[in-house]
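Dear H.,

Thanks for agreeing to be a second pair of eyes. The structure we're designing against is below in C-alpha cell form, covering all 299 positions.
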C-alpha cells in the first residue's frame, strides 16, 4: 500500500521539479498555458499602449491611475475589472470603445488582437501570473518609481507652522500666571491683616487674570515644539497643566461664593490660593530646570 503511493508521489516530485524549471512565475494561481499566454499578451499590450501615461515611473500618472503594469492590482480594482465578466468591466469598455488609449495617444488605439486578449484575460478571471522573463521585467517596471517630489521644508503644514510659532511664546507668557497668582496671595494676606473686605475685590481680579493666563501658558506649552524628553520635562508639563486647572477652580470659588472674611468659604479660598501659588512657583522652577538643570538655584 505504502509503495503504491510512494511511486506516483516520487514521479510527481520529479516532474514538478522539471516543471518549475520551466519559465513560470511562482504564483499560486491556476496556471493553464492559455492563461499564461493571455496574461502575457495583456501585459505586453499595457506596456506598449498604457504604460507611458499610467506607469509607476510617473510622478503624476494620468487619471491618478499609475499601476497599469501591476496586473494583480489592476485585477483587484473592482471599479475597473469584474473577473470573469468583460462586459461589466470598465477597463474593457474603455479599451473596446477606444476611449483608452485616447485617439491622440502616439501609439494609437488598441487593435483587434489586443482587445481580444484583454477580453479573454478578464474572462479567465484576470490572472496575474506571468512567464518568468516577463515577471522579472514587470518587477523592474514597477520599481521604476519617479523621484519623490520635493517636500516643502521640514514637511510642516501652515497650521503646524503657526502652532509652533505660537508655542515659542510659552516661556515669555509664564511670567503672567506666576506674578499674578503670587500677587493675589499678597492681596489676600493684606485682606487678612487689615480685615478690610475691599481687598477681596483685588484678590478676585488678580485671581481671574492669573487663572486665564495660566490656561493660556499651559496651552502654549503644549504647542511648544520642545524636542527633549526628560522626566523633569514630563513632570513640568503635567504639573503646569494641573496648576492651570487648579487656578481655574480657585478663581471659580472666588467668584461663585461670597467669601466674607471669617467664613469657611474664605478660608477655603485662601488655602486654594496658597496652594495654587506654590504650584505655579514649582512649575516655573521645573521649567527653568529643563534648560539649566535642577541645581540652577544652588548657592
Ligand atoms: C496618452 C496618455 C494615455 C494613454 C496612452 C492611456 N491613457 Fe488612460 N487615461 C489618460 C488620461 C488623461 C486619463 C484621465 C481621463 C479622465 O479622467 O477623464 C486616463 C484615465 C484612465 C482610466 C480611468 C482612471 C480613473 O479611475 O478614472 C483608466 C482605467 C485608463 N485610463 C486605462 C488606460 C489603459 C488600459 C490604457 C492602455 C490601453 C490607457 N489608459 C492609455 C491618458 C492615457
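And this is the sequence the design step returned. I haven't edited it by hand at all.
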Amino acid at each position: 500500500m505504502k509503495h503504491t503511493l510512494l511511486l506516483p508521489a516520487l514521479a510527481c516530485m520529479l516532474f514538478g521539479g522539471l516543471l518549475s524549471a520551466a519559465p513560470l512565475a511562482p504564483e499560486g494561481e491556476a496556471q493553464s498555458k492559455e492563461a499564461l499566454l493571455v496574461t502575457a499578451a495583456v501585459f505586453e499590450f499595457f506596456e506598449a499602449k498604457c504604460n507611458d501615461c499610467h506607469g509607476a515611473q510617473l510622478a503624476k500618472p494620468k487619471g491618478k491611475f499609475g499601476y497599469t503594469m501591476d496586473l494583480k492590482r489592476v485585477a483587484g480594482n473592482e471599479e475597473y475589472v469584474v473577473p470573469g465578466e468583460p462586459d461589466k468591466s470598465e477597463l474593457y469598455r474603455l479599451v473596446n470603445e477606444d476611449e483608452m488609449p485616447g485617439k491622440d495617444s502616439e501609439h494609437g488605439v488598441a487593435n483587434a488582437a489586443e482587445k481580444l486578449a484583454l477580453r479573454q484575460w478578464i474572462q479567465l478571471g484576470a490572472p496575474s501570473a506571468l512567464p518568468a522573463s516577463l515577471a522579472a521585467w514587470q518587477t523592474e517596471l514597477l520599481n521604476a518609481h519617479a523621484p519623490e517630489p520635493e517636500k516643502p521644508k521640514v514637511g510642516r503644514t501652515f497650521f503646524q507652522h503657526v502652532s509652533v510659532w505660537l508655542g515659542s511664546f510659552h516661556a515669555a507668557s509664564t511670567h503672567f500666571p506666576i506674578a499674578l497668582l503670587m500677587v493675589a496671595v499678597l492681596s489676600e494676606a493684606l485682606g487678612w491683616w487689615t480685615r478690610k473686605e475691599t481687598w477681596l475685590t483685588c484678590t478676585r481680579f488678580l485671581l481671574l487674570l492669573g487663572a486665564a493666563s495660566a490656561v493660556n501658558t499651559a496651552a502654549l506649552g503644549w504647542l511648544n515644539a520642545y524636542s527633549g524628553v526628560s522626566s523633569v520635562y514630563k513632570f513640568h508639563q503635567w504639573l503646569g497643566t494641573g496648576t492651570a486647572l487648579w487656578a481655574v477652580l480657585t478663581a471659580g470659588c472666588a467668584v461663585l461664593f461670597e467669601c466674607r472674611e471669617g467664613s469657611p468659604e474664605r478660608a477655603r479660598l485662601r488655602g486654594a490660593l496658597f496652594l495654587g501659588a506654590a504650584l505655579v512657583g514649582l512649575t516655573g522652577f521645573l521649567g527653568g530646570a529643563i534648560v539649566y538643570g535642577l541645581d540652577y538655584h544652588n548657592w
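Two observations from my side: The chain has two domains: 27-142, 156-292. The chain is about 65% helix and 0% strand.

Warmly,
E.
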